[in-house]
Amino acid sequence: MATYSNPQYSAANYQTNRPRYRETLVDTILAYHKRDNPGAETNVAVDVATGTGIFARQLPAHFAKVMATDISGTMLESARASSASQAIEYVESAAEDLSFLGNSSVDVMTVATGAHWFDTERFAAEARRVLRPTGTLAIFGYTGFGHFVDYPQCDKIIKEFGLGDDRLGRFWDRGREVLVNGYREYHAIFTRDAWTHVTRNIYPNTIEGESAANVPAVVGSGPVVMDFQVTWRVLQDFLLTWSTLTLYHKEHPERENAALAVVREMMAAAGSADMDEQLNVQWEEILLMCRPPQSRN
Q: How far apart are CA 288 and CA 185, in angstroms?
């Protein structure tokens, strides 16, 4: 999304306050990569739309070479600063044009909460080009919404904040819909184009429109993507990283920061006055993995 390249957007705030991914997520991806896949190698990994490199920093322990790309030079500056001690090659590049990579040169490609901003068809074609026949593509992410176990009345409040036309909803570009719908659009593309071993895991079963969708998913018994424990204060700091806030307040500069306002609204609904209260949230997450078509025609 172009907002991430806007000088007014804080890459430092993104780096500090975005959720982290479970340390076991790489193991989950590698288990898939090697299962029933003779010849699967771990020489080259590429993390696309790396942002500040939050997930890329988990890869060097598992791969001989790690590259990470992003379209925003500002985000990559933060990534390099945070990865100074790690052997990660950062490349400023659009996800749909990975021309610095050769055909069939990548073992594992990951996209951490970024694939929804891409041209889905062009990215799928480029991933198909650069992945080895035994390669794996792992697209995963979180919607930013979830189930507040102790305060279920807050589920609707945060979704209306993010998607409501009178709140942030109309300021997102179409990519937000791709994510909120659980990457079902990618699943359809990979199935149509004969990618193999296509699997989509979701947790919990609250993804928008999931119950009526004709796209198979495995509903997990627990999270495999996110590791994000929050208080009201941490939740507020996370919401402040949402890219669309910049656009919202550009149109409404006179209004109180919307992230601060919605956290106050949620706390009132929960009857809570402690910003540091630990919250039990089941965050919506998706993990989509597949292997490239065996025919490259």
A: 11
Neighbours of 133 (CB within 10 A): 14
Which regions of 2-154 does DSSP assign to beta strands (E)?
20-21, 44-48, 65-70, 88-92, 106-112, 131-148
Query: Residue 264 burial by CB count (10 A; 0-12/13-18/19+): exposed, middle or buried?
Result: middle
**Three-class SS of residue 249?**
helix
| Cis peptide, bond prior to residue 204, ω within 30 of zero | yes
- Residue 197's pLDDT is 96
Between β-strands 281-291 and 131-148, what pairing exists: parallel, antiparallel or unpaired?
antiparallel
User: What pLDDT is stored for residue 15 in this prediction?
Assistant: 57
For residue 28, the surrounding DSSP H or E stretch is helix 25-34
pLDDT number for residue 1: 47
Provide the CA 271 distance to its chain's centre, in angstroms: 31
Separation of alpha carbons 244 and 174, rounded Å: 12
Distance between terminal CA atoms of the chain?
A: 32
Q: How far apart are CA 19 and CA 4, in angstroms?
A: 17
Low-confidence ranges of the chain (pLDDT < 50): 1-5, 9
CB 83: neighbour CB atoms within 10 A? 19
